[in-house]
Structure formats: C-alpha cells, structure tokens
Amino acid sequence: MTLQTKGQFTGWHMTAILVVFFGIVMAVNFTMARMAIGTFGGTVVDNSYVASQNYNRWLDAAERQDRLGWTVHTTLTKDRFVIIDVKKGSALVPGVTAVADAIHPLGRASDIPLEFRTMSDGRLKSVTALPAGRWTLQASLRQSADIYKFVEQFQ
Description:
Oligomer: single chain
Number of strands: 8
CATH superfamily of the largest domain: Immunoglobulins
Organism: Sphingorhabdus profundilacus
Pfam families: FixH
CATH topology of the largest domain: Immunoglobulin-like
Protein name: Nitrogen fixation protein FixH
Keywords: Membrane, Transmembrane, Transmembrane helix
Strand content: 25-35%
Helix content: 25-40%
C-alpha cells in the first residue's frame, strides 16, 4: 500500500512544466519572427546573376573614382540640411554638382530625392531638409565627366 503525501511531484506536474516551457519558447519565436518580417527592408540586388555581370565594370568605376583624389565630407545641420564638402588636397573642387536619394534604412518611409545648390563658399547644400530619424544618403557627385559616388548614414 502506497501513501500519497501532500506536495508529491507527479507526471501531471512534469507535463504542465513542459507545456508552459515550450509555450513560452514558441511565443517568443513567433514574436521575433513577426518582428523580423515586419522590419525587412527588401533585397540588396534583385538578380544576383545580372549583378555579377556588372562586377568588373563596378570595380573599374571605383578605381577611376579613387584616382580622382577627392575627399568628401558630409554634415547634417541643426535644421537637417545636408552639406557636402568636396576637396582635392586642401582646396574645394570647383564646379561639382550633386544629386542624392535619402533612403530610410528599414524601408518604412518613402525615398526622398535631394537636390543640391552651390553655396557662396563653394560647398553644396541640399534644397530640402531631411525629416527626423535615420537616413542613408546615396549621392552622386559630378564635375564634367568625373563621377564620384558615396553612401553616408545620418541620424
């Protein structure tokens, strides 16, 4: 004859522990998966084969850009306008024009095309200000046939 005492650990206790444990694990996994899918901004390239066909051309363009010897410095003013300094050595490069797109890094906001005007000191200033938040600036600078592309992050 077995006597059952109060507080004995039974199979039902173990079943309850396992159900609660795996229930929590599944809830966390589903929550994290939902958050990951909701913040995915898209792909880097749509077709990797087509991108690979342009790889050598991209390397040549990067080499030409390095030979220019330009140093590009970007700043974001307090009122959120983008300022671009383009220098060769210590002097500003004259006659440079710029176009850029401000892209929200998570794809939650629409891209903002930015146009730039040359200021009196030779630096470039965006015509429109960036909204608050994190932005990735993809810019292209041009001086006659010379092209310089860069990416900058702003918060």
